[in-house]
Amino acid sequence: MLSQETKDIIKSTVPVLEIHGTAITTRFYELLFASHPELLNIFNQTNQKQGRQQTALANAVYAAAAHIDHLEDILPTVKQIGHKHRGLGIQPEHYPIVGETLLKAIRDVLGEAATDEIIDAWAQAYGVISDAFISVEHEMYEHATQQPGGWSGFRPFVVSKKVQESEVITSFYLTPQDGGDIATYEPGQYLTLVVDIPGQSYTHRRQYSLSDAPGKPYYRISVKREDARGNLPAGVVSNHLHETIQEGDILQVSAPSGDFVLDMNTKSPIVFLSGGVGMTPLMSMANTLMERRPAHSVTYVHAALNGRVHAFKSDLTEMAKRHPAFRHYVVYERPSNEDRSHAHFAKDGFIDLDWLQTISTQDAEFYFCGPTPFMKAIYKALKQWGVEDTHIHYEFFGPQGSLAD
Hints:
- By secondary structure, this protein is α/β, with parallel strands linked by helices.
- It has three domains: 4-146, Globins (Globin-like); 155-257, Beta Barrel (Elongation Factor Tu (Ef-tu), domain 3); 270-395, Nucleotide-binding domain of ferredoxin-NADP reductase (FNR) module (Rossmann fold, 3-Layer(aba) Sandwich).
- Helix content is 42%, strand content 19%.
- It has 13 helices and twelve strands.
- The protein has helices spanning 4-12, 14-35, 45-50, 52-66, 75-88, 94-110, 116-146, 236-243, 279-292, 313-322, 337-340, 353-359, 372-385; strands at residues 155-164, 169-176, 190-195, 204-209, 219-224, 250-257, 270-275, 298-304, 326-332, 345-348, 365-369, 392-395.
- Strands 4-3-6-1-2-5 form a six-stranded antiparallel sheet. Strands 10-9-8-7-11-12 form a six-stranded parallel sheet, sandwiched between helices.
- Strand 8 (298-304), helix 10 (313-322) and strand 9 form a beta-alpha-beta unit.
- Helix 2 (14-35) crosses helix 6 (94-110) and helix 6 runs antiparallel to helix 7.
């Protein structure tokens, strides 16, 4: 337990963290990789270059300081990060390394303002917070290993089928090389892959949403090929999967994880809103609902640039044909004339509140995923509409961000 004096010191640093948090976490990663380059095998270097990981860590540190009196308030965040850590293979022995490096980064950035008193208080606080992470993740590791078909660490899977879903999205069907059973999962969860690319100094770990309903003898992930755009380079792993990985190849996979999952017990209507490849976890949810609760009221809206990059068009069209309770709409930013002839084409441009109110009711459960600008627009519209927070569900691909900006 932390003393009240320690808590007060931590709380006094909140304004400083608000200003210097990203500088501290940027310095943290510089120090971490300089002293422990082997950790480059775990961390996503693209997120590092874009500053997303630094910002996410800064937000997490800030939240811990702001809630130091009631750390139970950040338990949902601990569990969310814990799912990612379990998938990536973060171990208890990594936490002392992180703690030591974080304290060094605080000293480096704050200089004389980082008194011994402040550093000692943060050392104590970090010990409590890291214990919470280790405890939560221990339970997750046990569940992943002990569940039927489960396993520890990474297991070799064969790419049994590779299917191009659109010009930019390809599905990979994965079956275990050992021929054994595979763990089930909740619709919305993801797999973590370890990819060793020839010529690369370090391995890459990436998390991809499962895009089909559970209960199959395979896992399916659907990956967007990330081409170079603006100042952003092409995605190393996504391009490797699209261009190099073929049927019969082996990928190392950890058991499913993630907390963005479908509530199968709700009686409310469900609205899925996807942008681009953000449809992958929502396809898993939609497929599961139509298999298990085909009479449940479901509205699926997909937004994309145009029909050429829109995956699973025929799947959604078939769902709408087979299930009267399932409605399907398409919104294209730059539709072609052929796109406008799509049976479920709704409008040009973007999903907006005025249109959303014509196809749904305020009491529905809303699940959405896609690029951050898309999610911010959807979140803003739902809040403007007065949708309850408990009815708003979303997931970021990569480090957690904020939609309230």
